[in-house]
Amino acid sequence: MHTPAEIGIDDFQANRSPDKRYRTTPLAGLFARSKGGFYHDGRFTYYLAVVEHYNTHFTLNLNSSEKNDLIEYLKSL
User: Residue 33's pLDDT is what?
Assistant: First the structure.
């Protein structure tokens, strides 16, 4: 369970839950849930959008190759 601030998004949906947190979706089978976007509201349409969000939010400084490697890894789960 994560607060909206921890994952860098708004609290609109989290405020509807009893503990005001977001549940992390398991990564296994992530490819099966990619249609319609990621997150509770589909705000990130592609894997790259999710990776870019976390790269910025956590200041990961991933280069293009590392981003692509991460995306391919996520798709393999």
Answer: 64
Cβ atoms of 15 and 3 within 8 Å: the answer is no
- Rounded Cα distance between 32 and 21, Å, is 24
pLDDT at 10 exceeding the cut of 80: no
- Structural Rg of the chain based on CA atoms: 13
- Name the DSSP class of 34: -
* pLDDT for residue 32: 63
Can you tell me the distance from the alpha carbon of 48 to that of 68, in angstroms, rounded to the nearest whole number? Answer: 8
By the 8 A CB rule, do 21 and 2 touch?
yes
The arithmetic mean of pLDDT across residues 18-46, rounded, is 74
The C-alpha angle 37, 57, 2, rounded to 5 degrees, equals 70
